[in-house]
Design goal:
The complex is a heterodimer of chains A (about 375) and B (about 160).
Chain A lengths: L1 H11 L25 E2 L7 E6 L5 E5 L2 E6 L5 E7 L7 E4 L3 E6 L3 E5 L5 E5 L1 E2 L2 E2 L3 E6 L5 E5 L9 H7 L5 E6 L7 E7 L2 E6 L5 E6 L4 E6 L2 E8 L4 E8 L5 E8 L2 H8 L1 H10 L20 E2 L19 E6 L5 E7 L8 E7 L2 E6 L4 E4 L7
Antiparallel strand pairs in A: 1-27, 2-3, 3-4, 4-5, 6-7, 7-8, 8-9, 10-11, 12-13, 13-14, 14-15, 16-17, 17-18, 18-19, 20-21, 21-23, 23-24, 25-26, 26-27
Chain B lengths: L11 E8 L5 E8 L2 H7 L2 H10 L6 E2 L5 E6 L5 E7 L8 E7 L2 E6 L5 E5 L9 H5 L2 H4 L17 E2 L1
Parallel strand pairs in B: 8-9
Antiparallel strand pairs in B: 1-2, 2-4, 4-5, 6-7, 7-8
The chains are: A mainly beta (about 375), B alpha+beta (about 160).
């Protein structure tokens, strides 16, 4: 049916945006720079986000704990605060301290001693079930993205496959977690948020609609900066040169997009098959012989082709103020740093989290491509 | 001749089959089944749309980046299985042959042949003796040993 619909669409709506997957080109041209990133310290158990405070301490959320890491390569680690859920997005505020997203609960601020100061659990009477990322403006205003009304952050793949109408929100509150209000609603799994360099607006990534939007701080209609990424955009962070770092946790593939168009098959797959074996993006690092495979992934003469259709991928891009990719760092199908969920810029030293491979690493920013 | 299932519902896609020295059989599984691919195999219309709408490199296929050889007997009972789970040395195994106490492994997409020592196998057993029934044909008398040169090119599995 969907093929007939495609043909009908092309005849009756010739100028409609087809939303096909763009090729990796220009600033997104493939390379192996992310594979050359230097691993910092030991492995983490599924690290998710990271942020630096004013004193240069690195906070990493991994499992149920937020770790405080110090030292030249952040190799000295101590458990800073522990939660019942798995903390996700992190942000640092000079006024409020560390801000942590906790699934099925909301966001909280944590003081220097690792004690929780306060919670924001509801806005407009509706719980913040799926806080994915958080950003803080210079005046202390906190911006949170709530991914979906239906699923917790761990169930991101389920949320993608359910294809419900977008229910994500962008929420703002002050440094004391009061006066919370919804800036924008109906977002398609907003996975990252950053306050722009001029502090006038907010960049929000929407993973399932593969786009980057710019909202005025007061809300209103967004300006779509990039409408069709090749990957699923995740967290976004401000860079040191008035630029932005954007992490993509996986790439779209033609097979995934096809299965997303196949309603009956997708429903059967979701009913009968465990989620880690579905057709769809993964963060990498895991291995199961029952995974779906694509023909292009066949090992030829003992080699995994780097250009094979990627089930997991590593991609970090540097964007200019208009959202154009200036440069990018790739770990391709054969690489070992997949599923990058967060980036932080430490005065020109750029740190990334590979959730798939459980590492934090430093990007080779000044290499000659 | 009547056809009957020897082994039904294998976990993978069977490729070459060959005799083993102990009266059983070796079988190469070229790819493994996955639950999603099984669903796709049960839905021809879905597969038709898949091959029409997306390029061949993107099609669903069996789990081909694994090495697996199984051994089964006349009753279809699987006696043992040999694995290369990550497909590191021998992915996509399409054939195997037992010869004088070793199992030789080959794959259509590979640049290598594997050799695996079989500790409990008959070290004098060869496939051609077994297939051409040497013991019945010339009273089990053995011809001179064939000279195999360049054994240094054989990589042990």
């Amino acid at each position: 049916m969907s093929l007939a619909r495609d043909i009908v669409d092309r005849i009756f709506f010739p100028s409609r945006d087809v939303h096909a997957i763009p090729v990796l080109d220009g600033g997104f041209s493939p390379n192996e720079r992310l594979d050359r990133a230097r691993q910092l310290g030991d492995l983490f158990d599924s690290p998710d986000a990271l942020v630096l405070d004013d004193a240069g301490t690195l906070y990493v959320s991994a499992g149920q704990t937020v770790y405080a890491c110090t030292g030249r390569d952040f190799e000295t680690r101590r458990a800073f605060v522990r939660f019942e859920g798995k903390p996700a997005g992190l942000a640092w505020s000079g006024i409020a301290g560390l801000v942590v997203c906790v699934p099925e609960r909301g966001i909280c601020t944590v003081d220097d001693a690792g004690k929780i100061k306060g919670w924001l659990e509801k806005v407009d009477g509706e719980a913040i079930r799926c806080p994915t990322a958080v950003a803080v403006a210079t005046d202390g205003t906190i911006f949170v993205t709530d991914g979906s009304r239906h699923n917790a952050p761990d169930l991101w793949l389920t949320d993608l496959m359910q294809k419900r109408s977008p229910s994500g929100r962008l929420i703002a509150c002050d440094a004391a977690l009061c006066n919370a209000h919804v800036v924008a609603a109906g977002l398609d799994w907003p996975g990252g948020v950053a306050v722009t360099h001029d502090e006038q607006s907010v960049h929000v990534t929407e993973s399932w609609s593969h786009r980057l939007c710019k909202f005025e701080r007061s809300g209103g209609k967004p300006q779509v900066l990039v409408k069709n990424f090749t990957g699923y955009p995740s967290r976004i962070a401000r860079g040191a040169n008035r630029d932005y770092w954007l992490a993509f946790f996986a790439l779209r593939t033609q097979l995934t997009e096809f299965v997303l168009r196949e309603h009956a098959f997708r429903t059967r797959m979701m009913t009968n098959v465990p989620p880690h074996l579905w057709v769809g993006p993964t963060l990498g690092g895991a291995f199961d012989y029952r995974e779906p495979t694509q023909i292009g992934r066949i090992k030829k003469l003992g080699i995994q082709k780097p250009w094979a259709p990627p089930r997991s991928y590593g991609l970090v891009a540097r964007l200019d103020a208009e959202g154009h990719a200036v440069e990018s760092f790739h770990s391709r199908a054969s690489g070992r740093l997949h599923g990058v969920t967060a980036v932080a810029d430490d005065c020109g030293r750029v740190l990334v989290v590979s959730k798939g491979h459980g590492k934090i690493a430093e990007l080779p920013v000044n290499d000659a491509n | 001749m009547r056809r009957g299932d020897v082994t039904a519902n294998l976990p993978g896609y069977p490729d070459n089959i060959n005799r083993a020295s102990d009266g059983t059989y070796w079988l190469a599984l070229v790819g493994l089944r996955s639950p999603v691919r099984d669903l796709a195999m049960a839905d021809p219309a879905f597969r038709t749309r898949m091959v029409k709408q997306i390029p061949p490199d993107e099609w669903l296929c069996p789990g081909i980046n694994f090495g697996c050889v199984i051994k089964f007997d006349d009753n279809g009972k699987v006696r043992e299985s040999l694995w290369d789970p990550g497909g590191i040395s021998h992915p996509t195994i399409t054939s195997m042959r037992e010869h004088k106490g070793y199992l030789y492994i080959g794959g259509l997409e590979n640049n290598r042949i594997g050799r695996l020592r079989l500790p409990n196998a008959d070290p004098t057993w060869t496939g051609w003796d077994s297939y051409w029934a040497r013991d019945k044909r010339d009273n089990g008398k053995l011809p001179p040993e064939p000279v195999i040169t360049r054994t240094d090119r054989v990589v042990s599995a």
